[in-house]
Design goal:
With 510 residues, this protein is of the alpha+beta class. The chain contains 15 helices and 24 strands. It has a 6-stranded mixed β-sheet, with helices on both faces. Helix 8 crosses helix 10 and helix 11 packs across helix 13. The chain is globular, with a radius of gyration of 25 Å.
Length: 510
């Protein structure tokens, strides 16, 4: 990619600020921050932003895009813009790449409903998109209700809701890429948070799959102070979220308390932590790929459950072995959110030296030593879980993993992309995902009559130990619409007359 020069920056100077003021798109309050007030901030850095630094910042983004192949010519890119400095800077910089790469940019904003003035953020982002002549899509989500429903923290619920929204926008706008404004500062904070919580170490990767699209982070090598100085120099305003100062959130305590302390002990500490995060992220990706490559030799789906070949598993490096056990737990219907590291270590010990009949309990599944194998099967007893599936959103569906749902125009989707599609206008909300029960009946696709779910599973030769964990999707009228993993119901099939489809995707938390 040829170096992209700042040929259009002067067009932005004052233009966005003038337009949003003319439209009344933000209140005159201390929550709105003038760009001139952000030449320095809590992140530190010089207040003098040299012209050469503009080129350096642009070249940094270009190098990240090229090195990780984040964008290719002709991409449609949904850009998540909260209104904060990072996301506004992301949009500003992506505009520089739009002409050379013929990118089609779409601005997307989700109102999380967490602050009384959140609607002003949406109006501000809409004004920015209008000033730059870009299409704009917004929605409002009740994140507090999402968090209660899924038993998540507000931060985790907001993240899930945001990514589900961005995927819906990408599908509706026919874009294959979603861009978000995570910075080098976010990379440092993420590594420290994972270390403090005892999770798998590593930072964010610049490119990863997100459902049916690709999520990219072009600013992952840019520091927040430089992005704010860029906006200030160009006269581009942004919104300041006061919750970023709320020390009740662990990330904010890491940002405002821990990092300044570390800086007092280690010169250039943030840069060094960032380098470690990048190394760990790359190693994590390599180890995950190594686990995927050896998986066919280790995992087997049998009638009695998921089997792990002990000798092959024990021969793997510990980091690969942990990932293989996680994959097996997820495949057997276990809950990865509650899976503890000590359980992964114990599973590898049993692979090496376990005696026949020894058992180990995981969240939702049991592991047993069976000769040359470790057998993972759902915990004995009929499942009783139930999950409400929204028509639009992403939820944790217990043993099924994550379920992503969206209502889309029929012409906007390809029915052969691996997702499940139902006729949205033949579905009566609310939708309930639950374990099937004795006596449940449905009309399998292509059949004239109704059939007991139990009889269908017997005829399909579904392994007996896997049957109790199979869920069904039931609508508000009590009609089974989908026997998950096996058959859609005739009542909800997509026909030539279908105008809107309900798309459902399931994926592991691994």
């Amino acid at each position: 990619m040829a170096a992209v020069r700042a040929t259009r920056y002067n067009e932005t100077r004052g233009g966005v600020a003038q337009l949003v003021r003319a439209r009344g798109s933000y209140p005159r309050s201390r929550e709105f921050e003038s760009p001139r007030r952000h030449q320095t901030g809590p992140e530190g850095g010089s207040s003098i932003f040299l012209r050469e630094t503009l080129d350096e910042l642009r070249e940094t983004v270009e190098a990240t895009v090229r090195r990780h192949r984040l964008l290719v010519e002709g991409d449609g890119v949904v850009t998540g813009v909260s209104g904060g400095a990072d996301s506004v800077a992301l949009l500003l910089l992506l505009r520089e790449f739009a002409a050379p790469l013929r990118l089609r940019l779409v601005v997307a904003h989700l109102n999380h409903g967490l602050r009384p003035d959140a609607a002003w953020d949406a109006r501000f982002v809409e004004a920015v998109a209008a000033a730059w002549g870009l299409p704009y899509v917004s929605e409002t989500e009740d994140v507090r209700a999402w968090a209660r429903r899924q038993h998540l923290s507000l931060e985790a619920a907001a993240r899930e809701a945001r990514y589900a929204f961005l995927q819906r926008v990408a599908a509706a706008q026919r874009c294959g890429v979603v861009a978000v404004g995570h910075t080098a500062d976010d990379q440092v904070e993420t590594l420290l948070l994972r270390l403090l919580r005892g999770g798998r170490p590593g930072g964010m990767w610049p490119r990863r799959a997100l459902g049916g699209v690709v999520l990219v982070r072009p600013l992952l090598d840019c520091w927040r102070r430089d992005l704010r100085a860029l906006l200030a120099e160009q006269g581009v305003p942004w919104r300041e979220d006061p919750t970023n100062l709320d020390r009740r959130h662990l990330r904010n305590r890491v940002r405002h308390d821990l990092l300044p302390v570390l800086a007092g002990y280690i010169p250039d500490g943030q840069n060094k932590v960032k380098q470690s995060a990048d190394l760990l992220a790359a190693e994590d990706a390599a180890l995950t790929a190594a686990a995927a490559a050896v998986e066919p030799q280790v995992l087997a789906f049998e009638e009695d459950g998921v089997r792990l070949h002990r000798a092959v598993l024990a021969a793997q490096p510990a980091a690969v072995g942990w990932r293989l056990v996680r994959r097996a737990v997820a495949a057997a219907g276990g809950n990865l959110r509650k899976l503890r590291f000590v359980s992964l270590q114990e599973a590898l010990r049993l692979a090496r030296e376990g005696r026949d009949g020894q058992r180990l309990s995981f969240p939702g599944v049991e592991l047993e030593v069976r000769g040359d194998d470790l057998l993972l099967a759902p915990t004995a007893g009929p499942p009783s879980w139930e999950v409400i599936i929204p028509l639009e959103g992403r939820v944790d569906a217990g043993p099924l993993g994550l379920v992503e749902s969206a209502v889309l125009p029929r012409e906007a989707v390809a029915l052969d992309d691996g997702a499940i599609y139902l006729d949205a206008d033949r579905v009566q909300p609310p939708l309930l995902l639950r374990a099937w029960r004795p006596g449940d009946r449905f009309r399998p696709l292509g059949m004239r009559g109704r059939k007991k779910v139990g009889d269908f599973l017997t005829d399909a030769k579904v392994p007996r130990l896997r049957r109790p964990s199979l869920p069904v999707l039931v609508d508000g009228a009590g009609t089974i619409l989908w026997l998950v993993g096996w058959r859609v119901a005739e009542e909800a099939r997509v026909t030539a007359q279908t105008r809107r489809v309900l798309r459902l995707r399931t994926r592991s938390r691994v």
